[in-house]
Amino acid sequence: MKAVTLQNVHFQYEEEGPAVLSGVSASIQHGEWIAVIGPNGSGKSTLSRLFNGLLLPRTGEIYINGKSIFSDDDLPVIRREVGMVFQNPDHQFVAPTVRDDIAFGMENAGVPREDMLQRIETVARQTGVEDILDKEPHRLSGGQKQRVAIAGVLALYPSIMVLDEATSMLDPNGKQEVLHTIRSLHASSDVTILSVTHQLHEALMADRVWYMENGRIIHDVTAEELLHNLDWLQEKNIPLPYAASLYQSLAHKGISSRSLESFLWREKSR
Amino acid sequence: MFEHVIIGQYLPGRSILHRMDARAKLASVFFLIAAIFLTNSWTGYAVLGGAAAVIYLSSGVPFRYIRKGMAPIFLLVLFTFFIHALFTREGDVLLSLGAFQFYEDGVIQGLFIALRLLLLVFLTSLLTLTTSPIELTDAMEQFLSPLNRFRFPAHDVAMMMSIAIRFIPTLMQETEKIIKAQTARGADFSKGSLKDRAQAFVALLVPLFVRSFKRAEDLAYAMEARGYNSGAERTKLRQLIWKTRDTAACVLIVVLVAALFLLRE
Ligand SMILES: Nc1ncnc2c1ncn2[C@@H]1O[C@H](COP(=O)(O)OP(=O)(O)O)[C@@H](O)[C@H]1O
Ligand SMILES: [Mg+2]
């Protein structure tokens, strides 16, 4: 049995609206780490929200650990089995302190208090937030908040974890912290991971990479295959790191780094 | 500007009042407020004042925090006193100032009303100074939960309150960021005509609102993804623990209120 099976999934937000996903078929093995890359608006976030029924496909089927996403009886179980971490660290912190926030999902699932206390200890150690359990969200860094979000998800013993650009709003240190947490999770447990990212180097940490365009998975390759096809990456305009892409777009406009530099100096001395 | 925000006016501490169950404190304040409005004799107010002083002494809160809490209503107290003193024309004339005459009953009435307001704010300040907002919401949720039977969503209301409390500092930090960003673009929030300032304010409020709506949408997704289901039974990490001293305190308060009721004239 696969962890996730997508069969010819179609999705659009509005009845008459444009197709956002048009015929996505793919599957994920247990314990696999999939990275999803692709241009803005290609449907990555939409796809990730289908994994736990936050959105339901218009047509097609999705099975999570063999259970259909359309089954009303299974949906609460699926919600517990699929944990989600979103992009903005501040928009997913619900409770007044770290400890309460980690407990939020467990409270919803009706976990007894004794178990909660024990699980909080465990997941806090796993994500390295054991020293900040009593802190309030506005006293935490972005990286800490994202690790708290991961801890809150892990406390529900998920079998699948979906991270939608979970590192994109963090500073370099925060990114490192969160990536380290995901990597050690992947190494030490059999949680299946799906992470949406704009960073090529993050995608290359995964086992397999899906490249999406216009609501379809165009390429489904191992990280290794991706590395050996850098030409193809170039051709597909896969977002390069920010500095490099700025350089590139300036170059497209015929502005060399040298002329930009002398222009800026001139402006400054005016 | 906002780095040391204290939510509400909670002042963490280890006093007897701090360690009491929030439900006991909430119920006591409720009873005492009822007593404040029932009392109509000097003896009654003396007893209430004494009780308030004892409660204050058990809170360990420095007086300046209370003073700060009471300052905003001071004008209101003066205003209501004079309204009553001037317009209740019964009893002997105590003092005549031109067109204004102060009658005995009016002055007494005014003093009573002023005392009521002061005691009310004094007690509620003590409650919020010694009880964290989270505990207060939990206590309120429990008091409101019998209303669930009448389809009153006690839990959702408590969740709304606690989310609102949790986001106050975030909103403040964001306000600070937007002020800085708009100042960098030349907006000035402290100088200029009323019109200029109003305009600068719009430039602050619009992004604040837009971002809040986006946040509300994201937060709803995140809560749903973590299995939040309004109306469903949930367990709780936070516990309110009722001790013997909470029972004792409540009994004392009830006896006090009963005594005050007997002192009515
Ligand atoms: N809530 C929504 N309502 C309507 N259209 C949406 C909504 N969210 C996203 N879309 C549209 O769906 C398409 C895919 O968006 P999204 O899945 O967010 O892409 P990505 O995450 O790859 O940038 C975009 O064209 C976007 O405008
Ligand atoms: Mg997205």
TrEMBL record, chain A:
One annotated Gene Ontology cellular component of this protein: ATP-binding cassette (ABC) transporter complex
Bilayer topology term: Peripheral membrane protein
Subcellular location: Cell membrane
Keyword Mitochondrion found: no
Domain of life: Bacteria
UniProt keyword list: ATP-binding, Cell membrane, Membrane, Nucleotide-binding, Translocase, Transport
SUPFAM superfamilies to which the protein is assigned, alphabetical: P-loop containing nucleoside triphosphate hydrolases
PROSITE patterns assigned: ABC_TRANSPORTER_1, ABC_TRANSPORTER_2
ABC transporter domain ranges (all copies): 4-239
Record bears the keyword Cell membrane: yes
UniProt cross-references to Pfam families, sorted A to Z: ABC_tran
Major location (coarse): membrane
GO-annotated molecular function: ATP binding; ATP hydrolysis activity; ATPase-coupled transmembrane transporter activity; cobalt ion transmembrane transporter activity
Family: Belongs to the ABC transporter superfamily.
PANTHER family attached to this UniProt entry: ENERGY-COUPLING FACTOR TRANSPORTER ATP-BINDING PROTEIN ECFA1 (PTHR43553:SF24), HEAVY METAL TRANSPORTER (PTHR43553)
Protein name: Energy-coupling factor transport system ATP-binding protein
Automatic annotation (TrEMBL), chain B:
Record carries keyword DNA repair: no
Pfam family, one: CbiQ
Membrane-protein topology: Multi-pass membrane protein
GO cellular component terms listed in the entry, alphabetical order: plasma membrane
Chief place of localization: membrane
Database matches in CDD domains: EcfT
Domain of life of the organism encoding this protein: Bacteria
One MF annotation (Gene Ontology) recorded for this entry: transmembrane transporter activity
Keywords assigned: Cell membrane, Membrane, Transmembrane, Transmembrane helix, Transport
Transmembrane segments: 29-57, 69-87, 107-130, 246-263
Compartments, record wording: Cell membrane
Listed InterPro entries: ABC/ECF_trnsptr_transmembrane, EcfT
Family: Belongs to the energy-coupling factor EcfT family.
Alphabetized PANTHER family for the sequence: PROTEIN ABCI12, CHLOROPLASTIC
Record note on quaternary structure: Forms a stable energy-coupling factor (ECF) transporter complex composed of 2 membrane-embedded substrate-binding proteins (S component), 2 ATP-binding proteins (A component) and 2 transmembrane proteins (T component).
Function field: Transmembrane (T) component of an energy-coupling factor (ECF) ABC-transporter complex. Unlike classic ABC transporters this ECF transporter provides the energy necessary to transport a number of different substrates.
The protein, known as: Energy-coupling factor transporter transmembrane protein EcfT
Taxonomic source organism: Sinobaca qinghaiensis
Gene (name only): ecfT
